[in-house]
Design a protein that fits this description.
- The chain is built from 15 helices and 14 strands.
- It folds into 2 domains: 4-203, DHBP synthase, CATH 3.90.870; 209-364, 3-Layer(aba) Sandwich (Rossmann fold), CATH 3.40.50.
- α2 (47-57) runs antiparallel to α8, α10 (222-236) packs across α14 (333-351) and α11 (261-269) crosses α14 (333-351).
- The chain has helices spanning 14-25, 47-57, 59-63, 72-79, 84-93, 114-125, 148-151, 154-163, 201-208, 222-236, 261-269, 284-289, 298-307, 333-351, 354-364; strands at 8-10, 29-32, 39-43, 66-68, 98-101, 107-109, 131-135, 165-169, 181-185, 191-195, 210-216, 244-250, 292-295, 315-317.
- It is an alpha/beta fold and 367 residues long.
Length: 367
């Protein structure tokens, strides 16, 4: 039997993070805080660590121990999620109190706690890339939201020591004090909540919603045409209607003007149904709400970036090749028809083709 005093209880610091990462590298177990509850962390590739986790929790829970990634970027790279809705869930809910379970049985979580992320990153940099954790949810562990009372219990502390726990980082009480929500991905791009937690279905669906904003000058021709086309394109591609919003606005628009008859007619010729559009000037609220903003010309993009510099990362020219979409106002119907066909092609490139996701991710990387 090990000596219970062998557990080092540390406050968050660079030296504490290195000590915890070093312990993980040796196959020892460490107890770290998350925003939900404390967890016992170990290197899944080390048999000593696995045996220790089994000693604490039993064999069945260990098989469900989730990989804890040090960042969203590493989680995305490692899981290689292909379905756009699943990728969107990871991007918008991590880091956070959510664990994701794949049909293969793999799982991932990125805890929203600076101390634990620092330990995980240090371990990852040292080649320990498969650190798993099981929350302190054993019946005699209580809520698992504090570690000090458990360590003051001689019996529990001895059990943890015997199992190989050598380092604890103590931050006091965790923020949420309850286990994370667990979501299981389904083949059709959906999800099931397999464990209720701090994040509920309503919040998840709100985070999943894709919000796209098209911007031109007067918001009566190009941008409302783009909005109508994009809505239909996304529906045809299988995007659930309740998980996206498409809107339009103008940099110099008046309020309440309808779409021009020529624009509406051009849409109908291509099989799109114009909506009951009313023009509006672009607002800070529009920009803040949108996930993707597409200007129809370089002048629109520049004006938007000048007016909203904090959102510059999500503002792009609709044409990936850098070409403007000229204003058809006052020109023959044939020009409107050509503008509509051009918009349709570019919107498919931006919103549907495989490169679109990569382009959005690249733009977002500079945020």
């Amino acid at each position: 039997m090990s000596n219970a005093s062998q557990i080092s209880v540390l406050k968050p610091s660079e030296s504490a993070y290195k000590a915890a990462a070093g312990a993980l590298a040796r196959g020892e177990l460490v107890i770290l805080p998350t925003e939900t509850i404390y967890g016992v962390f170990g290197d899944q590739e080390n048999q000593k660590a696995n045996d220790g986790l089994i000693e604490i929790f039993g064999a069945t829970p260990v098989s469900l121990g989730g990989w804890h990634a040090p960042s969203l970027e590493i989680a995305l790279e490692r899981t290689n999620v292909s379905h756009p809705l699943h990728r969107r869930m990871l991007e918008r809910l991590l880091p956070g109190p959510v664990g994701f379970l794949f049909e293969s049985g793999r799982s991932v979580r990125v805890p929203d706690n600076a101390a634990t992320l620092a330990v995980l990153q240090t371990a990852h940099d040292a080649g320990r890339t498969n650190i798993i954790s099981i929350g302190l949810m054993r019946e005699d562990f209580g809520k698992g939201d504090e570690i000090a009372p458990l360590l003051e219990n001689d019996s529990i502390r001895q059990q943890l020591t015997d199992a190989g726990v050598t380092v604890v980082i103590d931050v006091g009480q965790t923020v949420l004090g309850r286990p994370s929500t667990i979501l299981k991905f389904t083949r059709d791009g959906g999800y099931e909540i397999t464990r209720e937690g701090p994040v509920g279905e309503r919040f998840i669906n709100e985070q999943l919603r894709r919000r796209i904003l098209f911007v031109c000058t007067g918001n009566t021709c190009r941008s409302p045409m783009a909005s109508a086309i994009a809505t239909r394109v996304l529906i045809d591609q299988g995007e659930p209607e309740d998980l996206f919003e498409v809107s339009s606005a103008g940099t110099m628009a008046a309020t309440g003007a309808p779409m021009t008859p020529e624009a509406a007619q051009a849409l109908r010729k291509l099989g799109y149904e114009p909506d009951s559009h009313q023009s509006k000037p672009v607002t800070a609220a529009d920009v803040q709400r949108a996930d993707e903003i597409y200007g129809l010309t370089r002048s629109h993009v520049n004006a938007m970036k000048d007016a909203f510099p904090g959102a510059a990362w999500k503002i792009s020219l609709l044409d990936p090749d850098g070409n403007d979409i000229p204003d058809p106002i006052g020109l023959p119907a044939s020009v409107y028809d050509e503008t509509c066909r051009t918009l349709e092609s570019l919107i498919r490139r931006r919103l549907v083709e495989p490169s679109a996701g990569a382009e959005r991710q690249e733009r977002g990387a500079g945020a």
